[in-house]
């Protein structure tokens, strides 16, 4: 069965943590295809301030770099959530829901394809708050990576997620290619403390990252081409 990885997010901006997750999933799951799905108007983040065109441009730059350096020819951007927002602007801005995105993908790709939604534990603990969340496992698998809280502590799963993990976790990556949906799988990856929120909060300090004496580790937060774009368009000049 063909395996399609799905990595959704605002990508505001795309950063090293997103790309590390994508590489981990590609390597450990043997994905045939990986789609990055930039969020249109996520209902839990109703006040996105970076315009769609900038988020999309930065994602294109990051993937172009990744394909060039890692030969990830099957990585692509899926713009269906952005198109949903554009279509709804003439009337009223409707939020986008992951469950609707998955249903749209199922309609496009059919029932004989394994869809694997990639996420971190910071999102997994909040899964019960997602719209129609109990339908999600009928549409996809979930492959997740460990993430730490900002204070360095680990996340505690709510009872509903603990129960599902107990019932539906598999330790075999091959199992995700034997059925179209229904499993949880833990990816092996070092925890990343980086987040888009933290990067945006860097605000006016962005210009310092390109200076010759700047801390080189800071440059690794985002690909160089993305950093150049941020500076060129003066994004995140004020903490959001």
UniProtKB/TrEMBL annotation:
It is an enzyme of class 2 (transferase). Pfam families: CTP_transf_like. Keywords: ATP-binding, NAD, Nucleotide-binding, Nucleotidyltransferase, Pyridine nucleotide biosynthesis, Transferase. PANTHER family: NICOTINATE-NUCLEOTIDE ADENYLYLTRANSFERASE-RELATED, PHOSPHOPANTETHEINE ADENYLYLTRANSFERASE. Catalyzes the reversible adenylation of nicotinate mononucleotide (NaMN) to nicotinic acid adenine dinucleotide (NaAD). HAMAP family: NaMN_adenylyltr. Belongs to the NadD family. This is Probable nicotinate-nucleotide adenylyltransferase. It comes from Parvibium lacunae. The lineage of its organism: Bacteria, Pseudomonadati, Pseudomonadota, Betaproteobacteria, Burkholderiales.
């Amino acid at each position: 069965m063909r395996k399609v990885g799905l990595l959704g997010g605002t990508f505001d901006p795309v950063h090293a943590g997103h790309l590390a997750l994508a590489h981990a999933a590609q390597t450990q799951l043997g994905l045939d295809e990986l789609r990055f799905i930039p969020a249109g108007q996520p209902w839990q983040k109703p006040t996105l301030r970076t315009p769609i065109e900038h988020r999309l441009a930065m994602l294109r730059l990051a993937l172009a770099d990744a394909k060039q350096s890692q030969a990830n020819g099957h990585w692509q951007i899926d713009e269906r959530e952005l198109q949903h927002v554009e279509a709804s602007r003439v009337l009223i801005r409707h939020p986008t829901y992951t469950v609707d995105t998955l249903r749209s993908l199922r309609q496009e790709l059919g029932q004989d394809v394994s869809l694997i939604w990639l996420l971190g534990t910071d999102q997994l603990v909040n899964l019960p708050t997602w719209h129609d969340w109990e339908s999600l496992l009928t549409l996809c698998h979930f492959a997740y990576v460990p993430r730490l809280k900002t204070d360095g502590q680990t996340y505690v799963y709510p009872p509903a997620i603990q129960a599902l993990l107990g019932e539906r976790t598999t330790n075999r990556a091959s199992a995700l290619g034997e059925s179209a949906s229904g499993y949880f799988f833990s990816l092996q990856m070092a925890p990343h403390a980086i987040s888009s929120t933290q990067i945006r909060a860097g605000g006016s300090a962005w210009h310092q990252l390109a200076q010759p004496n700047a801390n080189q580790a800071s440059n690794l937060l985002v690909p160089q081409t993305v950093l150049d774009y941020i500076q060129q368009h003066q994004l995140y000049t004020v903490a959001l």
